[in-house]
Amino acid sequence: MKRLIIANWKMNGSIHLIQEFRSLKKIPGTEAIICPPACYLPLFSDTLMKFGAQNCHHANNGAFTGEISALHLKELGCTYVILGHSERRTQFNETDSVVNHKAAKAIEHGLTPIICIGETYAERHENRFEQALLSQIDRSTHGLPRHQYVIAYEPIWSIGTGLVPTSNDIQTVINLIQQRLGTHTPIIYGGSVNDKNAADLSNIPGLNGILVGGASLNVTTFQSIIDAFQA
Ligand code: 13P
């Protein structure tokens, strides 16, 4: 399987940035996927770039002002949708159960959900992170076919902080996820990934890619990160 290099632009980016990203080069063994704010998704339809969304609703349509459904995303040509990002869990009260319903709907419409899990700083330092991660996995992925979603391990304490777990610590979490889900579910890592640490991350066995926040907002930096994952 190609390794997934996913850009999560969060609430950033512009039409100008999308123009710049048209120069992104395809690299063997990798698949770059840009997840811009939803309003920009149609601008990717006439590009060769793969693209995805940062959220979707769990219904097909209806009276849900401000929401976007998996059906809408599919119609625009999205292939992936990030679900359960810690920013949505903490700031928009998304529970594992909500994430699970959204993921089921995304799969029903042929999208691949990227289901985010991650422990807090306290859970890591009080050695409760395994329990926290397993609980998120069990509830968020309940009933979903294991080869039809991706798990993104994003420790909350590493997002936007410059702190990255050691390769051994990431490996331990990959093993934990694989013990729970088997080896058919791709596992990616996110949290302070940049062009300096991408090469080390690319060497972690069993890691199928990365989810990049801040460093995905510059096309040169993002290209260097993709290059580091060349097969
Ligand atoms: P940063 O790469 O900015 O730490 O963000 C990670 C993230 O949240 C990606 O989804």
Q: Summed up, what is this model?
A:
With 231 residues, this protein is of the alpha/beta class. The chain has helices spanning 15-21, 70-76, 86-91, 96-108, 121-125, 129-140, 167-181, 198-202, 219-228, and strands spanning 3-8, 30-35, 50-53, 80-83, 112-117, 150-153, 187-190, 209-212.
Order of helices and strands: EHEEHEHHEHHEHEHEH
Reading off the top of the CATH hierarchy, the class is best stated as Alpha Beta
The total count of helices amounts to 9
Sheet-strand content, in percent, reads 15-25%
Please mark out the parts with pLDDT under 50 across 5 or more consecutive residues, or reply none: none
Strand order of the largest sheet: 1-2-3-4-5-6-7-8
Bound molecules: 1,3-dihydroxyacetonephosphate
Strands, count: 8
Structural shape: globular
The count of domains is: 1
Structural class: alpha/beta
Radius of gyration: 16 Å
The average pLDDT score comes to 97
**What percent of the residues sit in helical stretches (DSSP H or I)?**
25-40%
Biggest β-sheet strands, sense, barrel:
8 strands, parallel, barrel
Subunit structure: Homodimer.
Enzyme class: isomerase
Main location: cytoplasm
Pfam families: TIM (PF00121)
